[in-house]
Amino acid sequence: MKLNKQDIFKALESISAPGEGQNMVESGAVKNIVTFGDEVIVDITISNPSLQAKKKTEVEIMKTIHDEVYEKAKITVNVKVDAPAKSAPNVIKGKAIPGIQNIVAVASGKGGVGKSTVTANLAVTLAKMGFKVGILDADITFDASYYASVISKFENREKLGIVGGIIYDLVNGKTIPLYLHPNITRGAVQFFKRECFEEIGGLLPLKYGGEDSAACFSARSKGWEVQNFEDLIGYHHRLAGTADRGIYKARFREGFVEYHLGYHPLFEFVKGISRYKEQPTILGSMVRFTGFWWANLKREKRSISKELIKFIRKEQINRIIKISS
Fold this sequence. Notes:
Radius of gyration: 30 Å
Distance between the termini: 103 Å
Largest sheet: 5 strands, mixed
Order of helices and strands: HEEHEHEHEEEHHEHHHH
Strand content: 15-25%
């Protein structure tokens, strides 16, 4: 059977070009078709350099000609790759950050839509690919030498597992210091020694948050040291916990979080009294305490182990005894 070139062209219009929104003919991927009786040679150029794309293109062309033109046709497909020129390398705008080559931003127009989940999965995947990865909240700012100072804290301290700094909320031009215990670091500036991170099993996914505090408790229960350093200062450009909710809801949720972390009720009461100056003054502590007891009344199931809860409560009672003595 003598094959007709126009029939071949028409048949190839049913195949999409790899990486293109058009078919092979419209996109110009088909460069030439030569027929000799029942033989046909198709020259095609694609932009995808992968072996899979080349093989798929070849198979689709052969199958289409056999199905739509002549099932016994002898077909040769010559696939050429014309990959576009590589784009310019990523350039971080502004002042260069030593040791940082790429920045990936994860953002949304509102809170509570899964940014943290996406960020964590990206970080884990990139780390498994061999990249060195760090996560930083976009609403945190600090001195350019901050991380160099953080890393220096680990020197000559074998059991120092988690390092953090002092954080100030910036609200309407005012700096509001966050209450931080010396050995509870905030997640936004939490820095782990790898061995510590691996021993505690990473960050425990908690329904209402508090993963950063849980990590600190878990690390200390395994003999690691956790410390905030006063010379490591960061600025948080909103009130803590208000990314997707008002201040009262944020305080109520904090009580929920502390119930799920297994906080001792007496410690929660003392904490509320000691932090009465937190915004909103007095009411904030009352709302947090209400959230804690609301979760207690609901008997919500906790995600952390009984052993860790026992450790947390023992630490908290010891702190109360130390303060009162």
